[in-house]
Write a structure and sequence with these properties.
Blueprint lengths: L2 H16 L12 E6 L7 E4 L5 E4 L3 E4 L5 H13 L8 E7 L16 E2 L29 E7 L10 E4 L2 E4 L5 E4 L5 E5 L6 E4 H4 L6 E5 L7 E8 L10 E4 L2 E4 L5 E5 L5 E7 L6 E6 L5 E6 L4
Parallel strand pairs: 7-13, 14-20
Antiparallel strand pairs: 1-2, 1-5, 3-4, 6-9, 7-10, 8-9, 8-11, 11-12, 14-17, 15-16, 15-18, 18-19
């Protein structure tokens, strides 16, 4: 399975369980999950209060009532960008919709869970590994805390995204995550590690502590990127590229290079006069020479 197909699988599985609520406006009693990329402490589950607000870390009271989930996500992203985070990626999903003014009972909020269609690019097929470790017995508690561990170092892996039972969970900085139940198929993604997928009872090593082990992937020493026109495929020079706090431009050969690589993926911004600004995900494993396209303004 290619990177794009695996990513689409994540989106399809999430949409399958939530499509009916995707366009609903939020109202008092609705249960929502807010996910912020790379920020487990800001990934929370909340019930909309009678006045249409939720209590949110850093921001305090945020009014979501009357807004669609995508509009609520934009509101929170804008608020976080105002002095807290730099251009945060935010997703809001409706977990439980109030009907006839009577919200259903919901389990306690899991501060580490998320249900966003995370724009994660998954590692290629060659990186996918099916674990077959000690099966998880039915006696494991629900909810259950597990640890995502680097197989080589034995340290926890923070920011890992896990799709299980129609939900996506994210590990905290210690690699810990609480899942609702130990059942079903799991897909586990983490920056710098190979993908783990398969039945949870074949992936999980039973403890305590209960653990899933991840294998690090090898990163390239240098990646060369060429930028081309989407229609003509002609190389483009003088394209401005922003990566973290670095800004460079494509040279006369219409390329730029990235060195001193320390992570598996990175998001870059491309801008050029006469073309639409765009964001792309760079893969720092392979291939070592990559091509990005830009679309001309109509």
């Amino acid at each position: 399975m290619t990177r794009s197909k695996l990513f689409c699988l994540l989106l399809v599985l999430l949409a399958w369980g939530q499509a009916g609520w995707a366009q609903d406006t939020l109202s008092p009693g609705d249960r929502v999950r807010v996910w912020v990329k790379g920020e487990p402490e800001l990934t929370v589950e909340r019930t909309v209060n009678a006045d249409g607000t939720i209590a949110y870390p850093l921001l305090g009271s945020v009014e979501l009532g009357g807004r669609k989930p995508v509009e609520a996500a934009r509101l929170i992203a804008k608020a976080l960008d105002d002095g807290f985070l730099r251009e945060p990626l935010v997703q809001v999903n409706l977990v439980n919709k109030t009907r006839a003014g009577a919200p259903k009972a919901m389990p306690p909020a899991d501060e580490e869970s998320m249900t966003a269609e995370e724009p994660l690019a998954a590692p290629a097929t060659s990186r996918i590994r099916m674990e077959r470790e000690t099966p998880a017995p039915a006696a494991l508690p629900s909810p259950c805390q597990i640890e995502i561990i680097d197989r080589q170092t034995g340290k926890g892996v923070g920011g890992a995204a896990m799709l299980l039972g129609g939900k996506i969970y994210q590990s905290n900085r210690l690699g810990q995550v609480v899942i609702d139940q130990v059942a079903g198929r799991v897909i586990l993604l983490a920056d710098g590690y190979g993908v783990v997928q398969g039945p949870i009872d074949q992936v999980l090593q039973v403890g305590p502590p209960h653990q899933i082990l991840l294998d690090p992937v090898t990163l390239a020493d240098e990646v060369t990127v060429k930028v081309v026109d989407s229609r003509t495929r002609q190389p483009l020079s003088d394209v401005e590229i922003r990566l973290d706090k670095m800004m460079v431009k494509t040279n006369a050969k219409c390329i730029f290079k990235v060195r001193e690589i320390k992570r598996e993926f990175a998001e870059i911004k491309l801008t050029k006069r006469g073309y639409r600004p765009s964001r792309k995900i760079l893969d720092f494993k392979d291939p070592l020479e990559q091509v990005l396209v830009m679309v001309k303004n109509e």
